[in-house]
């Protein structure tokens, strides 16, 4: 054995719950409502635009930061929605999905010993990235089954070692959102500090019941310290394309691009051409709240007479389902049982919480065809 002992940077990182549950779904031929990807096709027109770009010869490296045409369209979108004008040359980078944007944003600024505040439950890439850079995650549990921020607790956790705070709204896995009051409270807490804000906004266009997405870009003092990360994959039903972007003040973006350059350098050129054209029609993203709310409402209506209890998701394409009236089993065991015995896969929420705090909730992805939602509801109606 050449390497008898490997000093792993992430020695205690388990298999992702998404990989585990999707693997079980495949093994037991279950309906997979666990992993967060849409179960329907992306727009044929968008795919035609990619093919056209390929035929037109856009098959070599794109500029490091992304093609100017796409950066301009993204900046216009943000200005129209949130009133913030980023500079096309120095404050935006097109990335290989939002995950790479998040990786670059954390890696560019977190040094050994730096603390990063992360709200739990949290998407499971934040902490490993912090740890791999020698940083120290400082978890704060969102409160109750509706997952609200306790800003007084946040204030107590901020120290002279705090380098970054990570927020995610609309929130995965809970489907909750940060309100304008939340963002103003955060803005006040960070005033007169050197703390960087990383705002994961991949579900920015999937928000319901006439609520408004409160982007960090929309708040002057936050925007001056924020790295805002977004996803074309989540927005336009093509997660496998791995296309996203981030925006940030020039002083931050300069460092982010250094990490971007040595990881991927640039991202898919023909797809950038396609998105640059596609974004010229704002309805491609402005229509999404209504589209997904219909999915959410249809799923909730189908299961309203079951023993599963719900509070309608405020955003994302995830719905939490409370099974506490059915069994006292842990959510991990109950989720596994549902796959094996009922052929329906979901995500147990406790794996994202501090000390695996268990509220007896499962996360279902409702970005599926109605037929899939109907089959899932039929199964849920037979449980308990």
UniProtKB/TrEMBL annotation:
Gene3D superfamilies, sorted: Aspartate Aminotransferase, domain 1 (3.90.1150.10), Type I PLP-dependent aspartate aminotransferase-like (Major domain) (3.40.640.10)
Cross-referenced SUPFAM superfamilies: PLP-dependent transferases (SSF53383)
Keyword S-adenosyl-L-methionine: no
Cofactor(s) it depends on: pyridoxal 5'-phosphate
Domain of life: Bacteria
A single GO molecular function term of this UniProt record: transaminase activity
InterPro entries per UniProt: Aminotransferase_I/II_large, Kynurenine-oxoglutarate_AT, PyrdxlP-dep_Trfase, PyrdxlP-dep_Trfase_major, PyrdxlP-dep_Trfase_small
A Pfam family hit: Aminotran_1_2
Record has Transferase as a keyword: yes
Domain annotation Aminotransferase class I/classII large: ranges: 31-379
Keywords of this entry: Aminotransferase, Pyridoxal phosphate, Transferase
PANTHER family: FI04487P
Protein name: Methionine aminotransferase
Organism: Zunongwangia endophytica
Top-level taxonomy: Bacteria, Pseudomonadati, Bacteroidota, Flavobacteriia, Flavobacteriales
